[in-house]
Design brief:
Layout: H1 2-7, H2 11-34, H3 47-59, H4 63-90, H5 129-148, H6 152-180, H7 183-191, E1 196-200, H8 207-213, E2 218-220, E3 240-241, H9 243-250, E4 256-261, H10 262-271, E5 278-283, E6 286-290
Parallel strand pairs: 1-2, 1-4, 2-3
Antiparallel strand pairs: 4-6, 5-6
């Protein structure tokens, strides 16, 4: 009986082991996928471990928890100051069109996690003034809670900060919608006269247009990457065309539409004269042209 009791862990020892295991769980995944490429969502399995760690910390009012609360408050205050500085710089800056006009693309960085963060410029924040104001309010709430509240009241302030910041993220996503999606182009295509559709480049660039407009399309130079091998398989759809085939189709009497983004626009204008490209719609740096008025 004595040996059995000695083998059993005390509650505080079990809690300590649980925290160590949760740290190993979260730490391994974070370190492993830090070296991954554009796999940010693979970090989602660490959320249960982080929840265990947060719950364990919130359950005990220790010196480390109080220091952590002050640290979160300090970080929130610094973030609020940074947002204030950005707002001062961009408050009177014009924001014509959509945010795609102010972004700078860096394709070489897109293989890295969060590589698109480099697309942001100071001018792009002029389009994000409202989300920045809401995010600033969120960080002020967190800073005040971290420095002037203790215990569960501070934790409640951090929860409110996160909820408000999530709302700011939603507002920012609305601003980024023309750049991230092709919905306006799909709506323009649905309302346009019937005609065959051609995609200038990779299928995935405009796959949402095909879905929402309920169309099929020819892929102009679209064999690269994932479709290369399957495109030559026996019985594969005859949807792949080259420059010469595109030019023949575009010059025919049949109505054709072509979808292109800013990167492939130079290739399109080098193949077809601009006078023979009639713009139907433009959104987020993407274009829909037709071959006849």
């Amino acid at each position: 009986m004595r040996g059995r009791c000695a083998a059993e862990l005390k509650p505080e020892d079990r809690a300590g082991r649980t925290r160590v295991l949760a740290l190993c769980w979260a730490g391994f995944l974070l370190v492993f996928f830090t070296f991954s490429t554009t796999q940010e969502y693979y970090s989602m399995p660490i959320y249960p471990a982080l929840a265990l760690l947060l719950g364990s910390a919130m359950a005990g009012e220790t010196r480390w928890v109080r220091m952590g609360t002050k640290t979160v408050g300090t970080i929130a205050a610094l973030a609020a100051l940074a947002i204030t500085a950005i707002l001062v710089f961009v408050w009177r800056m014009p924001a014509p069109g959509d945010i795609s006009r102010a972004l700078q693309q860096h394709p070489d960085a897109y293989t890295l996690s969060l590589g698109h963060m480099g697309d942001l410029t100071l001018a792009s924040f002029a389009y994000l003034r409202t989300p920045l104001i809401v995010a600033g309010i969120a960080f002020v709430i967190g800073a005040l809670g971290g420095w002037f509240l203790r215990g569960h009241r501070a934790f409640l302030a951090f929860a409110v900060m996160m909820v408000v910041f999530l709302h700011a993220s939603r507002l920012a996503l609305v601003v980024f919608d023309p750049y991230l999606s092709s919905r306006p182009l799909a709506e323009a295509l649905r309302g346009a006269p019937d005609g065959r559709l051609i995609l200038n480049g990779q299928y995935y660039s405009f796959s949402s247009v095909l879905f929402y407009a309920n169309r099929t399309a020819l892929l102009w130079n679209g064999r690269a990457n994932n479709l290369e091998y399957g495109s030559y398989a026996p019985g594969s759809p005859s949807v792949f065309i080259d420059d010469a085939q595109f030019l023949n189709l575009w010059s025919s009497a049949e109505r054709f539409y072509v979808l292109t983004d800013g990167d492939a626009l130079a290739h399109l204008t080098a193949t077809v004269e601009r006078s023979r490209l009639y713009l139907v719609a433009e959104s987020g740096g993407k274009f829909l042209f037709v071959n006849r008025p």
